[in-house]
Predict the structure.
Amino acid sequence: MSRRIRDDTHKISVLRDSKSVTKHETWFSDQPPDLGPGFSAADADRRRTTVIAILRRAAKRAKRVNSEQTEALSHLVNKLQACRPRHRCGSLACPPCARSWQKAKTAAHEAIISATKKGPSKRLVFVTVIPKKKMYQPGRFSQIDIKKANRWLKDVLKPIGNRTIVGSADLGWETRRGKGYIQVHWHLVMWTKSRKALKKKLGVIFKRAKKHERPVKVQVVSTTAS
């Protein structure tokens, strides 16, 4: 087995266990993949300091009315403060740990994309799908179940054929007509021979309810290297 294949296999397998990410300091460094401006190791450390300050203020306010909330916030502050090389906290509230997971996921996605290309006629496309069915109004936020939503997406995408799809779900706070809601949507990457044909198939699955809506967006990716 070549070194490249071994490296790519490691990048893919690391996604199966989030704890394995925090055990490797490489993901906390500024080595590739590069997440872009504002996402360096130093930026993440500065954000951690800011987050700790915000949590401390929140704990101080909560102390007046809710002792349980104060205890939870204080515990999180201590957890983030104790996070250091080779003793990472693994909390997604911790900017350096959240960044390490994003870097590992990016590296694994790049490895999968590279390993699944079939033929020179295939083009890599970036797909965004925004199903109106996955819109959650205030009072319904507790109903958001990402694992269940991912299974739902896998089922509804069957009509586009058997193909490797890489991506993740995202939650966005949106406002329309003065009312706020959380919209679950997906950013996906896949190979296709025809961007237009793929977009047409996705348009049948994710129909727009109104003329101005764009529940599907398909863009050709020019590069994946970092």
